[in-house]
Amino acid sequence: MDGRNGAQRLDASQLGAELGERATLVQFSSAFCQPCRATRRTLVEVAGMVDGVAHIEIDAEAHLTLVRRLDITKTPTVLVLDADGEVVRRASGQPRTVDVVAALGHAI
Questions:
Q1: Largest CB tally within 10 Å, which of 16, 21, 24, 36?
Q2: Would you say the pTM of this structure is higher than 0.90?
Q3: Where are the alpha helices (DSSP H) in the chain?
Q4: Rounded to whole angstroms, how far apart are CA atoms 59 and 5?
Q5: What is the pLDDT of residues 8-33, one digit of tens each?
């Protein structure tokens, strides 16, 4: 997972949903992506375990401007945002729960 160098900041207006109080898990998905469904389950589970963490799922095909701006090249891609909306970690592919929890440690 990438770190804070050249970090970008996102807000609720760009994401279409409110950020979490402590951190936000942003998932870029596409309609026919099998790993996206499993990723959704993992991120919803982690967001439910950690107070103040939100999960936002974005349809990559419906938000091409944001996808291009963030250089999202495959789905699923997960961005971990801190409380201010700064991207502190990102990963492509289906994450393991333990990796998502560890990435949240960099945001909280």
A1: 24
A2: yes
A3: 12-15, 34-49, 64-69, 97-107
A4: 26
A5: 899 999 999 999 999 999 999 999 99
